[in-house]
What we know:
alpha/beta, Aspartate Aminotransferase, domain 2, Aspartate Aminotransferase, domain 1, 7-stranded mixed sheet, binds pyridoxal-5'-phosphate
Amino acid sequence: MSNQRHTERPMAFATRAIHAGQPADPTTGATIFPIYQTSTYTQAGLGENKGFEYSRSGNPTRAALETCLASLEGAQFGLAFASGLAAETCILSVLRPGDHIVAGDDLYGGTYRLFERVVRPMGVEITYVPARDTAAYQQALTSQTKYIWAETPTNPLLTLVDIAAVAEAAHAGGAQLVVDNTFATPYFQRPLELGADVVIHSTTKYINGHSDVVGGALMTSNAELFEAYTFYQNAAGGVPGAFDAWLVLRGVKTLAVRMRQHAENAMAVAQFLSEHPKVRAVYYPGLANHPDHALATRQMHGYGGMVSFDMKGGLPAVKRAVKRLRVFALAESLGGIESLCCHPASMTHASIPQEVREARGVTDSLLRLSVGIEDARDLIADLKDALD
Ligand SMILES: *Cc1c(COP(=O)(O)O)cnc(C)c1O
């Protein structure tokens, strides 16, 4: 960051979201960090460069994003990728045949597919445990376990993992804890401060926040892991282009204000749904009757913008309701300023076998809302009209 002040207090989150890694351009004074749309860099002589040689290995716009995201997670290092799954693949790249992962059982569908169809066939074992059962993670550890992989709150049931307790269990067993922080964002939850070793984000979601980029990132303060991940990022090459990196930099500037509004609207929607006669169950960690409400209050700084609910009347009722929505768009993805409604069983979680899905509570009558930052009155009126 430019302008280091002579004060003890580090700059606060909302300020770092706007400034970290993005000093004014020294040659032109440009206030907003430029898009370095270049693949290569002219060298002054053999071995003489300004820190950049080829944009797969490093690009200034991507580097600014990596610095900014690392700052927000309280990490020493950050790496940006072409998608969240590319960031996950990088984290998994250090595993070898015979290694073992313990994972929470309520994972993003694409992560589950990556584990089962790509990682397992390469000889890595994966054990799934109930996401909120801290003791189960501990019991599943073996001498071969390299990572515990946790997503919290989970998708789509918004179950919480006790990050501090699971980190302790991981370290006691010689493993490291990876937390997918996509749903909470560093504004509401900073896993590294709670003992996690690596954080992964789909920046496609809240970090960018405008539903116009696919991207991913990982953050860590572990220098050894960072070196291995940096090697893989360059060796495998799943990097974002300069323009996408710039869009995410632009989006993340407003993360603090967006997250506050997402959470306020989500709470209003969750309360409305809780009182609706056609709704069987509402999943939102901000509700006092959510089983992980106390943990959420302790571990998070807010409850986020995702709300799931189970409708009475099964699939036919769900089909009728989603047809009537006007403000909520029926769409995959989440975390943008606009409200989305998703049917996990047929959309995001369709790649999970039905028996596995149902056993985990992802029923045919479950709907997941990504509550946007429109006026909450319009969101509630839309849901009321669809459900009544
Ligand atoms: C979307 C998502 C991912 C995957 O990210 P992509 O950017 O789509 O590759 C991983 N984890 C969670 C929780 C997600 O929501």
